[in-house]
Amino acid sequence: MSSRQIPRISLRNFNERKDEIGREIIQAAENVGFFILFDQERPSQQDIEEMFALSTRYFSLSNSIKSQYPFIREHNAGWEKNAQIRPSTGVADPKESLQLQYFRRDTYWPRDLPTIPEFRERCLEFMQSVHDLSMKILTFFAVALEFPPDYFARAHELSFEDCLSTLRLLRYHSLEIDKDIDVPKPKWRAGAHTDFDVLTLLFQESGGDGLEVCPGREAHTSFALGDEWTAVPAKTGEITVNIGDMLMAWSDDRFKSLYHRVRIPGPGDSLNARNSMAYFNQPRPHTVIQGPAHKYEAMTASEYILNAMIRYYRPTHGSEGFTAN
Ligand SMILES: O=C(O)CCC(=O)C(=O)O
Ligand SMILES: [Fe+2]
């Protein structure tokens, strides 16, 4: 395990400290690719705790209810259980997840869930607050790349009918039941992958350690890395932010999108279920992605996502944990 530190950046008094915060964020994105934000106004600690409680209530519903909105790969939306096979491991992550795309909220979000009629409304509110914070952060990136300050905000505007930004609720199974039985144990809760979006805001829960990142990726088109993994501690209320492949491409590889994975609990760790929530900022499909130095051919976001899906779902033969998504 590497001793590399994941930068921690306080958002306290955001408006007064904007310049300083911006500098810290850009430096972290250039040098590490992952950073932890805390002291944010919204979503507050309480907003996040309530959202985790809502997510737990959702996952405790029966499979037959949750499967009314099954995962559809072409849409990257819906509910899956033990079904996401990462090419880096070749086996399904032992988890379930629900992907809520903002623009499909009227057509493809669970509705009228028994015992949680407020599910949809609460998810929308949470998405809105995470979106607002995401746009504040993306403004720093726009300025650093010498684009207009609202450049990324316009590409992600929630009010447009084709907004692709997505909230993913995740629940990795408890490993308590299997602990004494002689069955093959999974090696990873989530196999190594990069995110193909622009920017991910990830919410972890205290007690749910296991997330690890691998620094050293030089080009958004490469698979590669080394074998130094750094733990990203889990704490309820804090926000782990990582650069996705699209922002790495959009910045001519200046901001780093890193491989990350979730390991299974080690000796002394809790075997309880692990919950997390990820908000993926994804630009509108027709947005053109090209960095200021034109290092790569211009590509629309929809072409980029399509390529990523092909690249990430194609089985590869690299050594364990080191290939694609
Ligand atoms: O659960 C986590 O901590 C990470 C999830 C993740 O990396 C993803 O869904 O892309
Ligand atoms: Fe990820």
- Unreliable runs: 315-325
Euclidean distance between termini CA atoms: 21 Å
Give the proportion of residues in helices.
25-40%
Strand order of the largest sheet: 1-2-10-7-12-5-4-3
Q: Which band does the percent of strand residues land in? A: 15-25%
Return the CATH topology.
Jelly Rolls
Order of helices and strands: EHEHHEEHHEEEEEEHEEEEH
For the record, the CATH architecture stands as: Sandwich
Overall 3D shape: globular
Give the mean pLDDT: 90
Q: Class, according to the CATH hierarchy? A: Mainly Beta
| Ligand list | 2-oxoglutaric acid, fe (ii) ion
Strand elements, count: 14
What number of domains? 1
Structural class by SSE content: alpha+beta
| Count of discrete alpha- or pi-helical segments spanning 4 or more residues | 7
Largest sheet: 8 strands, mixed
Q: Your description of this structure?
A:
The protein is of the alpha+beta class and 325 residues long. The chain has a single domain (8-320), classed as Jelly Rolls. It contains seven helices and 14 strands. The chain has helices spanning 14-31, 45-59, 63-66, 119-144, 151-156, 245-250, 301-313, and strands at residues 8-10, 34-38, 78-81, 95-101, 166-172, 188-193, 199-204, 211-214, 230-231, 239-243, 259-263, 274-281, 288-289, 299-300. An eight-stranded mixed sheet has the order 1-2-10-7-12-5-4-3. A four-stranded antiparallel sheet has the order 6-11-8-9, with no helix packed on it. Helix 1 links the parallel strand 1 and strand 2. Helix 1 packs across helix 4. The radius of gyration is 19 Å and the shape is globular. The two termini are 21 Å apart. Mean pLDDT is 90; it is low at 315-325. 2-oxoglutaric acid (AKG) is lined by residues 168, 170, 190, 195, 202, 204, 211, 260, 262, 276, 278.
